[in-house]
Specification:
With 307 residues, this protein is α/β, with parallel strands linked by helices. 40% of the residues lie in helices and 22% in strands. The N and C termini lie close together (10 Å).
Length: 307
């Protein structure tokens, strides 16, 4: 993309929407829009208002299932968009090229922009939920949802948003972990500080070597290590690029990465498949706008459509 061209990007998930203009690797003029009290028509009007004179396309990055025509098939975090032909609505209103991408699709595409020398990798979001994409030469190899592989086959495993029990996402995703922390602290008579996220309480208790928190992280790291061993056995990627609040915090706690890697080696036929695996992280504020890779990836998908 030339520096004089821009793509308007709308990024949306459970915390609302953000709108920005992307030029090259710069994300500019960003502002936030709440989910509350708006309609699909409101969102389209916001997406096309005050477009810069150099705008060539509009792109969406949406947390949910999106079909090839830009229709939102299902999005639990933004229910008013489920079934909405967002692409067609925006094209009709703007007379511009429009692309609508799943948030993990845009994130992985953006990761390839941020790490141009990384030709083959897995992009993993570890936040309230878990999303995974495999990228080769800048292109997503598969849209598979590996986070719904079964990790706990028991009848009492946590229910996942996909309708199954015991999915990797439900067991060690941020929301699943939060529910476990709440249940654990209630059972032990530990009061959670008002206004503090349960996972922050978990992290602080882990650093303080409190046994209950250490035990939870042992389960988390064993589950993540086992899962990554399965991926690595199949994919043999040289690197994982991590994003998401859980990844950015948990993986930097003392000893957590090594516990995950130890669990991987235990489940791998060849331990060398873990030895050569690099963990990388997307840039975080103040170095970049939060989730900058999703904005860059959405813009890149729009540009590919325009070429």
């Amino acid at each position: 993309m030339q520096d004089t061209q821009s793509v308007r990007v709308v990024e949306g998930g459970g915390r609302g929407f953000r709108v920005a203009d992307v030029r090259g690797n710069a994300v500019e003029n960003a502002f936030r829009l709440s989910n509350q009290g708006i309609t699909a028509n409101d969102l389209v009007r916001t997406a096309i208002q005050s477009l810069p004179g150099d705008n060539i396309a509009i792109a969406y990055s949406i947390a949910g299932m999106v079909d090839s025509m830009g229709r939102i098939v299902r999005t639990p975090n933004i229910p008013f968009l489920s079934g909405v032909p967002l692409g067609d609505m925006t094209r009709e209103a703007s007379k511009k090229p429009v692309v609508v991408g799943n948030d993990m699709e845009t994130a992985a595409t953006g990761m390839a922009r941020l790490f141009p020398n990384l030709k083959y990798f897995s992009g993993i979001t570890w936040s309230s939920g878990i999303g995974i994409r495999v990228v080769k030469n800048g292109l997503i190899v598969s849209d598979s949802e590996a986070s719904h592989i079964s990790l706990d086959p028991s009848l009492y495993a946590p229910l996942c948003g996909c309708g199954l029990r015991g999915c990797f996402d439900a067991v060690i995703g941020g929301n699943g972990t939060m529910r476990r922390v709440i249940a654990e602290t209630q059972t032990r008579g530990i009061n959670l500080p008002e206004g503090m996220h349960p996972c922050t309480v978990l992290d602080r208790a882990y650093v303080a070597h409190e046994p209950w928190a250490v035990a939870i992280y042992q389960l988390i790291t064993e589950g993540m290590g086992s899962f990554l061993a399965t991926l690595q056995t199949i994919l043999q990627v040289p690197a994982i690029v991590w994003k998401g609040s859980f990844a950015q915090k948990a993986l930097r706690l003392p000893g957590i990465e090594e516990l995950i890697r130890t669990a991987m080696r235990k489940h791998l036929a060849n331990p060398e498949w873990e030895t050569g695996l690099h963990f990388l992280f997307v840039p975080q504020p103040p170095d970049a706008i939060e989730d900058s890779e999703a904005f860059l990836g959405a813009a890149e998908l729009a540009l590919r459509m325009c070429r």
